[in-house]
Amino acid sequence: MRTLLIDIGLTGILATAIIWFQLQPSDSIALDIRLDDGTSMPLSAEAIVLFWSVDVKASHRDIQLIQRFHQAHPDIQTVFIHENSQSDASLREFLINLGVYSIPAYNTAWPEQIPTTILLNDSSRIDFNHSPHYSKLMEFFEVEY
Question: Does residue 21 fall inside a structural domain?
Fold first, then answer.
């Protein structure tokens, strides 16, 4: 019985630590977004920037979530940033298979954790080192369904 209680206690402490770590705000990443030809990509006043990787399944879900949000609110710019590890053609094909018709973009800085989502709304900015909920996107951009 004692070992069961110890296991439950340690599991609770570990779960709390993981949740606490995930909810910590990440350091702000400098946004210097470029297209494959090196030209700068300007951001609108309202934008969602997602750093993603083909190898990270959670970023695939985030791409689809942000795409659904963008379909409901097309005035909010979405930018999907990836590493230079794959060709643009294969990345475009991958995005199209997820239902996203977007030009792959690059950034000079890369976050420690993938996926990382940055929400921009005029002078407000939130950096997430975890997946944002659809309701959080609606709240931040002050939009409804």
Answer: no
Longest CA–CA span in the chain (Å) reads 64
Three-class DSSP category at 125: strand
Tokens matching residue 57:
């399944």
CATH of the domain at 32: 3.40.30.10
Give the total number of structural domains in the chain: 1
- 61: Cα separation from own chain's centroid: 10
Residue 28: DSSP 8-state: P
Q: Radius of gyration (Cα) for the chain, nearest Å?
A: 18
Total residues found in the chain within this entry: 145
Q: Read off the pTM.
A: 0.77
Residue 15 lies in a domain: no
pLDDT tens digits, 48-59: 999 998 888 888
